[in-house]
Structure formats: C-alpha cells, structure tokens
Amino acid sequence: MKPISKIALVVNAQKEGAHKLGDMLASLCADAGVESRLTTSHPLEKDFLKGVDACCVLGGDGTLLSAVPESMTHQVPVFGINQGKLGFLATFSVEEAQWQFKRILEGEYIIEERSILECTSAGGEVAYAFNDVVLKSTDIQRLIGLRVSCDGELVTDYWADGLIFCTSTGSTAYNLSAGGPIIHPHSNVIGMTPICAHTLTNRSMIFPSKSQLCISCSPKGKPPVISVDGNLAFQGCQLPLSVRRAEKTVPLLQPPNYSHFRILRSKLMWGDEKSIES
C-alpha cells in the first residue's frame, strides 16, 4: 500500500497511558516526516478526517466506533491500538504499536472493507451501524413484541427483551454476549439474535446480504427504544424500521499478517496460543 503522509490520532484521554502513547506516536510521525493531527474529542468533529490518509485510534472498541462515521464519510482507513478490554476492532496491542507503527507509516498494511447496516425509521431518518442495531423495551420489567419480515415475507413475531441486528464485524459484540453466532467479517451477511426470547425455539438467524428487513410492533406491542452502535437513534415515529446492508463500507487498516481466527483465539482464549502456533 502507499506510504502515509498525513494521519489523524484520536486519543481517549480516560484510558491510562493513552495520552503518553499519543505523544510518542506524534513524535514518530514527526521523525518520519509524516504530518499528524491529534484530538482527544470523540465522537470526532465534522470533517476532522478530511484530507488525511489514515486514522489511528488509541482506546478501546468504543473509541474506534466513535471514529467510524467520519471514516465512512471520507473513506479514511481506521485502525485501533487497544487500551480497553477485549478489543475485537482495536486489534493492535500497545506493544505491537511501538514496533509496527513505523511500518504502517511506510505502507506495510492492508485495507479491509467492512460492511455496515443502513436503518431507516418510519419518519425517514437514516442511521448507519458498524456493529449493531438494537431494539429493546422501554420497560425493563416487560417483554417487547416485535414482528420481523424479510423481503416482504413474515419471519415471525418475537416476544423478548429485545432484538439485535448485527453486521458480520459486530457479531462479536452484543450479539455474541446474547448467545448469537460469530460470523466471519468477509461474509457480509446480516445477523439477528433475540435477547432472552420468551419462546425457547426463537434462535439467531442469518439473512443474505441483499435482504430487506422490516421490523414493526407485534399486535398489542409497545414501541421500543432503538440504539445504533450503542447510541440512542431516531426521534418521533420510529417503526416500522427498515434494516439492510448499506452500499457504503468502512475501511479498516490491518497489518499484512492479520488473521481473524488468531484474533478469536487470543481474545476468547481458545486453547493455548503458543501450542497452536507451533
């Protein structure tokens, strides 16, 4: 890939050591003749990524998610140095960053185009989800009734604490915690997982990439609260909600030897990594 001449550094100052690491990376940029701009604000200001070649996020997956809208708008590759917990998106460790960052500046990286979900409310508002769209009851003591259709055909009515619609990338987020499947990021499908469904046979489903999903209230159901990538979305009339795979993508910057399965083994502690690699 082409060397990086301009880079944005997004620092989550609440993470211990993040600011110090950000200053160190800025110094590395200066030594390499690379222009850098650093911010501790997230979500990012409008057009903060305009004109840069890449965006490096220092924090956790939540911090990286806050940079996704700008990354998508300007098609700027984003990568994360994990200073959170699991870090499925922010895949570089602090130790790796100290020796791989210079190589990235020199062009030793690959770009993966990750699919996102486009959801449209009944009022015409549009939101994009890199991880997931979640519909939950406004009353934590009551189930919510939701009707799901796919390409105009009824799937079924769900009585549950809520529903999760996830991207392949987001399958390792809330979807995984709710018992949903891990989906390879290259699959580009849409996952749906009920949250604590009242009917035990209501399980996760995987929809083809071109599916048009419609979510409405079941008869006698009450409107849900809707969140997109963990943030409340939409005002006023929300349902029926349309969910589909967006035409836009988000470019993720990865090291040349990136392996999705190695990340899973490491983050989910599947066996002894050393014995597997040997």
Keywords:
elongated, 278 residues, alpha+beta, 2 domains, Tumour Suppressor Smad4
Q: What does this entry look like structurally?
A:
- With about 280 residues, the protein is α+β, with helices and mostly antiparallel strands.
- It has two domains: about 5-110 and about 255-275, Rossmann fold (3-Layer(aba) Sandwich), CATH 3.40.50.10330; about 115-250, Probable inorganic polyphosphate/atp-NAD kinase, domain 2 (Tumour Suppressor Smad4), CATH 2.60.200.30.
- The chain contains six helices and 16 strands.
- The strands form three sheets. The protein has a six-stranded antiparallel sheet, with helices on one face. The protein has a six-stranded antiparallel sheet with strand order 12-11-10-7-14-15, with no helix packed on it. A four-stranded parallel sheet has the order 2-1-3-4, sandwiched between helices.
- Strand 1, helix 1 (about 20-30) and strand 2 (about 35-40) form a beta-alpha-beta unit.
- Helix 1 packs parallel to helix 3.
- The protein is elongated and about 65 Å long.
- The two termini are about 30 Å apart.
Topology readout:
Blueprint: E1 6-11, H1 18-31, E2 35-39, E3 54-59, H2 61-74, E4 78-82, H3 94-105, E5 110-120, E6 126-129, E7 132-136, E8 144-150, E9 153-160, E10 162-166, H4 174-177, E11 190-195, E12 205-207, E13 212-217, E14 225-228, E15 231-232, E16 241-254, H5 260-267, H6 273-277
How is this structure best summarized?
The chain has six helices and 16 strands. With about 280 residues, the protein is an alpha+beta fold. The protein folds into two domains: about 5-110 and about 255-275, Probable inorganic polyphosphate/atp-NAD kinase, domain 1 (Rossmann fold); about 115-250, Sandwich (Tumour Suppressor Smad4).
